[in-house]
Amino acid sequence: MGAMGDRNSPGRRTSPAPSPPSAAPKSQSPAASPPAEEAETSTAPAGILPAEYWIQQGLEESHNDNDSTFEDTVSSTASLSESILQYRTLHGRTYHSDKVTDNQYWTPNDEKQKESMDIIHHMIMLVLDGRLFRAPLRDDIQKVIDVGTGTGMWAIDFADQFPTADVTGTDISPIQPSWVPPNLRFEIDDATKEWTYPANTFDFIHSRYMFGSIGDWAGFYREAYRCCKPGGWVESFEPSAVMESDDGSLYERSPMDQWGKVFVEAGRKLGRPFDVPQQDLQRKGMEEAGFVNVDIWDFKCPLSGWPKDRKLNEIGMYSQLAIEQDIEGYVLFMWGQVMGWSSEQIGVYIAHFRRQLRDYNVHAYVRMRSVFAQKPYTDAR
Ligand SMILES: C[S@@+](CC[C@H](N)C(=O)[O-])C[C@H]1O[C@@H](n2cnc3c(N)ncnc32)[C@H](O)[C@@H]1O
User: Are the beta carbons of 191 and 147 closer than 8 angstroms?
Assistant: First the structure.
């Protein structure tokens, strides 16, 4: 391979993940200490509390919410054809069209959710110190694809940064803006089906936040391998839905503990995992497909503004903002359609969850994993 561009030189192999402080101040908030009385209900599979539990708990007023106000932004949509705009609706929220895929994607595709996606893009840029990727790409890179591009923010920024590259963003929802760099186009394509691109097309295949969207990660990377040029790179950035703390401040049976458990169980039911880093699915899928030179970087992403460290605090604030922007959008389908909770049960759970999220005595984080790898120049298999 020729000279490597160094503008995005990767933080090599599993850099130390920032750890939350070990000593947690004692919490004053009802949300940060286990409920005095456990509900008279048994737990469902995998430690999941029954939906009724949250209604039985009641919701006392919290006095230590760290409320933040954030500005709204508006994005425009690109219309591609009529059928892909026939959105499904659920409790007033719109979801991608059934005409595009039989693979029910779990978040809405409306403005509320799109704003959350855009905030997450900004947050990940902070996590990666302003870089869009970690793979050692050449400056004269040609063909690039962002699979599951969402609002297309990553693809837009990449196309701006590499004006001579030809960038494609794909998704099952036509929610991308129409004013984009001239070297970028968006296409509707279901990444869980056989990809519509010929073999050896792309120099770089990027995907991000596809947890809960993909059942067969090995199959996903087989397609990526086929469509990647020899010597080209694949990169994946995935969070886990499992919320944790290192100091016990996020205790079992609390709303944030349940968040991960319900997502993992609902994902198991759907056949699309939400704990991708824990299952090491990116690395396994890439290696199984034949990619080599695998590089892994792990990060513990704070979920609110609790960290004292300035950078982590900022990341945590954006993380909290992204979640609070659309808690309902994140749980409606998985809790309601997959787990069978009623609207009331979901609503009450969300109120408990939000209160705990705002309690900075709870030092919660989710694991994130970035993995990149290279397609060999010659396929030795
Ligand atoms: C959480 S969003 C992430 C968007 C973007 N990658 C980012 O990081 O900002 C996941 C996106 O994947 C898309 N998606 C879900 N299933 C898909 C599939 N089978 N094929 C293509 N895109 C899919 C969704 O429509 C959604 O826009």
Answer: yes
